[in-house]
Amino acid sequence: MIQFGTGGWRAFIGEEFTKDNVRLVAQALSNIMINEQVQDKGFVIGFDRRFLSDKAGKWFAEVVAANGIKVSFIDKFVPTPIVMFQTKEMGCIYSACITASHNPADYNGVKVFIEGGRDADEIITQKIEQQIAHLTQQDVNALEFEEAVTAGKIEIINPMNAFVDSIIDFIDIESIKKANLRVLIDPMFGVAKNALQTVLINGRCDVDVINDGENPAFGGLMPSPSAATLYRLKHLVAHEGYDIGIGTDGDADRLGIIDEKGNFIHPNEVLILLYYYLLEYKGWKGSVVRNIATTHLLDKVAADHGEKCFEVPVGFKHISSQMEADDSLIGGESSGGLTIRGHIKGKDGVFASSLLVEMISVTGKKLSEMLDEIYAKYGYAYTAEGDCTFKPAEKEALYNKIYVEKQLPEFEYEIEKVSYEDGAKVYFKNGGWVIARFSGTEPLLRIFAEMEDKPTAEKVLNEMKAFLSL
Fold this sequence. Notes:
- By secondary structure, the chain is of the alpha/beta class.
- The chain has helices at 19-35, 53-66, 80-90, 122-133, 145-150, 160-170, 173-179, 193-202, 231-240, 267-281, 297-304, 316-326, 349-363, 367-378, 395-404, 454-468, and strands at 9-12, 43-47, 71-74, 94-98, 107-114, 118-119, 154-157, 182-186, 206-209, 244-248, 255-258, 264-265, 288-291, 309-312, 330-332, 338-340, 382-389, 415-419, 424-428, 433-438, 444-451.
- It contains 16 helices and 21 strands.
- Strands 1, 2, 3, 4, 5, 6 and 7 form a seven-stranded mixed sheet that branches. A five-stranded mixed sheet has the order 9-8-10-11-12, with helices on both faces.
- The protein is globular, with a radius of gyration of 22 Å.
């Protein structure tokens, strides 16, 4: 059964991620475009470096083209943000990228984007699922890829330069040129290197790259930038004199940052750094949007500058929608995705990394110094994270415990309120919080806790984790 979660459709290669199912998704989306009479707007397709991604991109294109929709096909692996950028540039109503983002190597999938280059919302993904439910393979139209190219139904494009130029035009490239920074990039065998390295070399940075090359197994690691997976980046930055280490996930929409001392900067801190920098140093104005599992220190930074902080459910589509509604300055999530007003409406690890390099160039301060400045003003908060795995048969019992019976541990901290908008989130009167929610992409129960220090946050996290363990 093909189901779309917060990050699109993801499935095991060879089990659910198959040629037949990829074509079903493509036919369903084609039907929607025809029904909405937007097939004349064209369709952008891109793919990442995962096993079968290039072939699956062609399978998808063959179906869309056979339905009379002009396809703009990016024939080299690219960051997902480039597909979103090109969707916006071409005025397409729909587009897709073959990727499973940061999932393990044996997954692949499809991300669908809508007008403006945003993640498809639930209304669209439900339409796709409903279409698929009524389709068989006999309903799928398809052309041979080369035949469709020859007939002009598929156009080969390469928007890399335009995307890179858009970032260079956005950031303060002249300040970066003067800073003479040393930068180490870890694309985690994903797709970020070409775009990010080009931006930074334009800024006269001394750039080195590790973990690049063709490796569908991602070197045996999850292609998700974290303190654990970026251990080599941490070591090299600390011992070889780099100003910053930049890690990006499999499709380059998320980032993980290492400071000049070799310390991992949590994505929460990255978001705080950039929002604070834009308000305090650049004098920009605007609210911030965070998801329900992201640090509340953003609320303090916003309030101190007379701005609002909006909380939305997990899924970047909710962030981009709220940003559009309030013309927010920045939006992001604790998993490492963010964007800025004026750029694309989806998360972009290449752009966010470039902006961080601008920040340390303009301020003349090291990453650790910028964080110290922020914590001196707003206080410290630590976010602890943990996952509970469960078997499919156990999900109903967990769901009932959380949502129906609404059971909670006996916390020693006074509770202000509990929200069930997206998972179960407990807000404590001391400003801390803990949330448990089902992952939209994997069979996991994700738990986050933010408190005034690491021991307290981990204590609250473990209490929730133990309570929900089956």
